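#dry-run=false #mode=assembly
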Amino acid sequence: MAKTLKDKVVIAGIGKTPQGAIEGSTALGLGIEAFKNAVADAGINKNEVDGILTHPGTTSPEGATHYLRFAQAVGINPRYSHSLVMGGGSGGALVQSAVMAITHGLADYVACIFGDSARTGGTRFGGAMAGGNELSQGIWGMFGPHANSAMGARRHMALYGTTSEQLGHLAMNIRNNANLNPDAVMYDRKITVQDHQDSRYIVDPLHLLDCCLISDGGVCMILTSADRAKDLKQKPVYLSGIGQAYQAVSFENDEWWYLTHQRTALADAFAMAEATTDDIDVAQLYDNFTISVLFWLEHAGFVGRGEAGPFVGEDRTALGAELPVNTAGGNLSESYMEGWLHIYEGAVQMRGDGGPRQVDGAKLCLTTGRGLNLNTSNAIIMRNDD
Amino acid sequence: MADYTKPLPRIDDNTDADSRAFWDAAGEHRLVMQRCTQCGHIRWPIGPVCTQCLTEEFEWQTLSGRGELHSWVNFHQPFHPEWAKEAPYNVALVKLEEGPIFLSNMVECEDSELAVGAAVEVAWEDATEQISIPKFRLLQD
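#status=ok
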């Protein structure tokens, strides 16, 4: 039944803002700038946009009513609209909502929007973990987003022999990609595996260079039906497979650290796209920390359980190797747009517009997102007409 | 004991009211969790119903305090001013014999002694006159 969504909707326009530290920027302003750029890229009139889906930035004061503020600011009364807070899973989940809404006729042109001034706006990602009736984890010194991933990394290392040096190769290759992307925050700042090893620990076993950036910026994608896209300005990027899954239970779940919900999201996306890992030419895998990429590789089936360490350690995710990963630089080295730029870069690659970082002849791209305390996850497989 | 400055459970202002029984037992150096009186499942964290059968009725069961080291990390980054004074410090996850995974710290050991799967047992830190915090030590064989 889910196959009815395959290739029904396309990314028709993409827009982004400068990334990094943008003094005086606001989440709303950055989202609007990205929206304007996406509308221009799609070659449509902004009043044709009848779907507004937003991910409130960490500095957006409106919270879950952000979609109303955004729509008001750009003068649109949408047919279909909501905000959603799933951390790094938000962008993918909103794109998937747009696919469903457009396929079923609830909207014609849906803009998915994110803007945040997390870098200059004073966002602190270091609060104590607590939620519901959970005991405040600050009692035991558990703070910030790093530690859960560090716990998973430690276990992956203990069970499968994965090493920090292997993660260093991944960080280096993703940084190399950023050095082919002049828009990347870390453009012109190459690193070596030794730099990675020499960088200070944040939460051992994760070094500084295992960790994503914190950034200001905005990203927008405009989606429409495949039929409508035939008359539009840009080469359509078809959304062939989508999937999402969540992990709410962790302390009663021995496999929490392995993020098995991601496997479900990926399996659904691959099934809908009627594709296998062999078909994937390039991947944009959510990299809040290096270790996350290893979990995606294993859950998608590019490698077996526990085998991703050597895969990344042997530079097989480098541009020009068998599976180029995070071709624009990812969260680690392009900008931390909570995964939104992963979708953007997927579209760039499918259009063939990657310039020096373009994967030649790429026809299928896998894009993934995950957020909050590792809870949310989704996968999108996009393709072109080539 | 009066100079304990790191975060403590907030049971007096009702923020953590649901955990009062947990901390009362901890004060007696007993690690307790909710056991469903219908199906026997032990749930964690503290919750309003059994996560398996949704039954509300439960009893607080005293656990063995034993388990194995599920994973651990070392905090170097100063996220909290009081904890930062002890950095680098460990935070550990313990897979308890009764099932749940419990967040804590390993004490009375060097980090070099820690290994995933190592047998551990609860070790109580008397933080204040009212509050004892469950920590874990390596179980000597």
